[in-house]
Amino acid sequence: MKKFFYTVLFIFLLSILFTGAAFAQDNQPTDDEVNAVAHQLYCPVCQNTPLDVCPTEACRDWREQIRGMLAEGKTEDEILQYFVDQFGDRVLSAPPVTTKFNYIIYIVPPLIILAGAIILFRSLKEWTTPKDAATDLGEEGSEPSSQKDDYVARFEEEVKKQK
């Protein structure tokens, strides 16, 4: 019975010791939380490389800086604004829509694509229209049909002579 009591006491003391490690964990952000913010930023050193996947030492430091800012309780917007203040708008993965010029950046490319699609559609429609249908409609400058028939008849005679 004593052995059982000491075993239970030993397990109880061990459980108390290990609960201290669980309570010692502070409010550290996870890698997913850090990468969610880092994904919205580009590396200021490397071109067109998101901060969450950039392998440089500077980017590792910046991710750790983001982790520290999240642990302090700063929001994503505050962290993004900090990096914009440090490095400019070029670090953001999506440019901010703040001026009329930035609206043009979002509107003009779809308009160009739409205009190109319309031009392509009309061109394809014109290319697939048979040429005979266009001449039968009575275009200006076309030959009268009697002259065409005479020409065809003479051509057929020449072909028969050569056979």
Q: Flag low-confidence runs.
A: none
Average residue-wise pLDDT: 79
Number of strands: 0
- The H-and-E topology, N to C, reads as HHHHHHH
Strand content: under 5%
Describe the main β-sheet briefly. Answer: none
Name the shape in a single word: elongated
- Rg is 38 Å
What is the count of DSSP helices, taking H or I runs of 4+ residues? 7
The structural class is mainly alpha
What is the share of helical residues? 55-70%
* Terminus-to-terminus distance: 125 Å
Summarize the structure.
The chain is mainly alpha-helical.
Give an overview of the whole structure.
By secondary structure, the protein is mainly α. The chain has 7 helices and no strands. The protein has helices at residues 2-24, 31-38, 57-72, 76-87, 100-128, 131-136, 145-162. The longest helix is centred in the last third of the chain and has 29 residues, at 100-128. The termini are far apart.
List the helices and strands and how they pair.
Blueprint: H1 2-24, H2 31-38, H3 57-72, H4 76-87, H5 100-128, H6 131-136, H7 145-162
List keywords for this structure.
163 residues; 0% strand; mainly alpha; 7 helices
